[in-house]
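Dear support,

Our group has been running a series of protein-ligand predictions, and this particular one with 4'-deoxy-4'-aminopyridoxal-5'-phosphate is the one our PI (initials K.S.) wants archived with full inputs and outputs. We had some confusion internally about which version of the output was final, so please treat the block below as the authoritative record. The input we submitted was:
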Amino acid sequence: MENWDIQSIRRDFPALQQMVNGRPLIWLDNAATTHKPQCVIAAVANFYAKDNSNVHRGAHTLAKRATDAYEGAREKIQRFIGAESAEEIIFVRGATEAINLVAQSYGRMVVRPGDEIILSNLEHHANIVPWQQLCDEKGASLKVIPLNDNGEIILEEYTKLLNSKTRLVAISHVSNSLGTVVPIKVMIDMAHVLGVPVLVDGAQGIPHFKVDVKSLDVDFYAFSGHKLFGPTGIGILYAKKTLLESMPPWQGGGNMIKTVTFEQTTYNSPPNKFEAGTGHIAGAVGLGAAVDYLTRLGPEQVEIYEQKLMAYARNALSTIPQLRQVGTSAHKAGVLSFVIPGVSSERLGEYLDHQGIAVRVGHHCSQPSLRHFGLDSTIRSSLALYNTFTEIDQLVLAVEKYLC
Ligand code: PMP
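Confirmed final output from the archive:
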């Protein structure tokens, strides 16, 4: 930890150097999106400036460079998450698209009338709506694991929900509204006893700690590049190769085929089978650079630093008597949600913005998790590896100033 040079890390992020409303920007909206280090910006710019070409199809130098960069990024991501093969890494637009892909391909293949899909009460809408749509189409039903007062999944209730009708468990790694870290390894092992595969929505997990899909034995892992210091419009679906091989394609077009006649089409093997059309090549290259950056810092070091910051922030917020923290699990990452009874969250959010402090106010696309606490909105401050203890002090000071 001694070598965690926060000032040098912050210098890697040009967007953090700006003034907003006359104050140095304090970015506490990392659960919505993260800023990009210069190496990511440079990788994207360099791709467009020099290597720009479509991949695979061209027989010329730039096509080869673009293909190498694209497939190289896939291999970097494979190594970063500990997948066995680069064929298990599907490029998608983001976590939302990854989950829709699984629902529409794997889900449509296996779910029958009367079947059940297990979710939890802390999911983002992206990990609810695609399953609801699938259940409506198939005459299946959603089963929801309830939360306790700390915003944690009640494992005993999960055990009760798992049965021979369960076709899939779909859970977040970390809640984007409460910050709760979900004990996914235990939950995966429990599902596997019944032969049930598990999809983990890792959008808020992977930015905060090391994720190893092999040791987790997770079947599907979805995340977005833009929350991992990479570009928007690119994300990853990891899936075990055997599953990908068994799944039908979900979109048709170029790249995903082997042969096409008007009578019949044969499909490419994974990952191409699930990547119809031209992908976000520059985005993938940028995400590859983000993963290189994180590898240099060390995801384990990121976790140690952020956990210290999280503990400090929880303690600092608790010194404001009126403030109620929402989601009080001992095991949290990234997210600090709070409300102040009698105070408009929207107004406080605007005030903080005037002080250069970016937080988010609203339901954070996770209405059921807030409803559990009788709320329809919170103020969410969310941390990343470049935030500082001083920034937390400034947040607390600004809230105190608003209240007096
Ligand atoms: N799941 C979680 C837990 C999230 O926080 C988000 C983004 N807020 C998503 C899914 C969806 O990510 P995206 O919009 O990048 O597809």
